[in-house]
Amino acid sequence: MAGITDQPFRHMVKKFGVSFMFSELVSAEGLIRNSAKTKAICSFSPKERPMGIQIFGSRPEAMSEAAKEVESFSPELIDLNFGCPAKKVVNGGAGAAVLKNLKLLRTIVQSVVKSVDTPVSCKIRSGWDNRSIVAQEAARIIEGEGACIITVHPRTRMQKFSGSADWNIIRQVKEAVKIPVIGNGDIYSPRDAKYMLNTTGCDAVMIGRAAMGRPWICSQIDHFIRTSEYLPDPTFEDRVRICIQHYHLALKKLGVSRGLKEMRKHIGWYLKGMPNVSKIRSQLMTMEDPDDVIRQLKDYARSFSQE
User: Fold this and answer.
1) Active-site hit among 84, 122, 202, 218
2) pLDDT per residue over 106-152, tens digit each?
């Protein structure tokens, strides 16, 4: 979710009752080199709490130093990412690549836990590929070295986001450790979330891609888990209005130039599947004036109230 779960996005999902949020992926090497851009990713507002900052790296000493730096931002959790499948991350030996070397994973977790007072969590995948499913072993190591939560995305790195997530692996990890386990992967609806909880025994679910253009899914999931009743999706008009709220937040938090560019992908997700959207979406993707974008979106929202 790098490039997606920035402050404006987090503010939007918080409006819809999400229980806990994580930052975008933060480079340990960037932090210890005092990169202003990297440090900016760690920034969050009191409204976003409780909040976790997730870091990645392949050198234990760098991860330890980065964790100390992250602690100065006072998050509720410091999350070690051993699950990211992105080429630029794994090519540096970080993210899901650490699952190929469980001795290294142990050393990283151990060094970070010892270096900070903030609770440490870890995110893992099932393994590097189908021949090396190591989730249970990795989870036991993570628990043994003092981390307090494990999040499991049960795909291998080689799968990336293709195929299906094997929820049986979440269940196996839950049975292997005593600390809380968060399940992640292939949750697209409130029913999916409840089914994962019921079938795997995990303690919570993590939403990623399903919230892109659908921040309201968090409140829908929470309501369904508690009541077994569905909250309806927002109307088309309300979906556009929520998109406009997000747009204003992006302009305020990121600045006009960056906010305009970053919001193009979000607009595409908000408008996906809506009536007569192809032409307006193409226009919105090329507009260079935020006022024009907002005006076009408002006109589109009004078209539904006139029907």
Assistant:
1) 84
2) 999 999 999 999 999 999 999 999 999 999 999 999 999 999 999 99
Tell me the per-residue pLDDT of 169-183, one tens digit each, with 9 for 90 and over. 999 999 999 999 999
Burial bucket for residue 22 (CB in 10 Å: 0-12, 13-18, 19+)? buried
User: How many structural domains compose the chain?
Assistant: 2
Domain residues for the domain of 158 are 7-212
H helix runs in 23-101, sequence order: 28-32, 36-42, 60-71, 87-90
User: How many angstroms separate the CA atoms of 157 and 132, rounded?
Assistant: 10
Name 54's bridge partners. Answer: 79
- Tell whether 154 is covered by a domain: yes
Q: Which residues contact 249 (CB under 8 A, 6 or more apart)?
A: 7, 8, 11, 12
Positive or negative: CA dihedral 258, 77, 111, 106: negative
- What is the distance between the alpha carbons of residues 77 and 117, in angstroms, rounded to a whole number? 10
User: Is residue 218 among the annotated active site residues?
Assistant: no
Asked if residue 50 has a cis previous peptide bond (ω within 30° of 0), the answer is yes
**Two tokens, residue 234:** 């927002």
CATH number for 172: 3.20.20.70
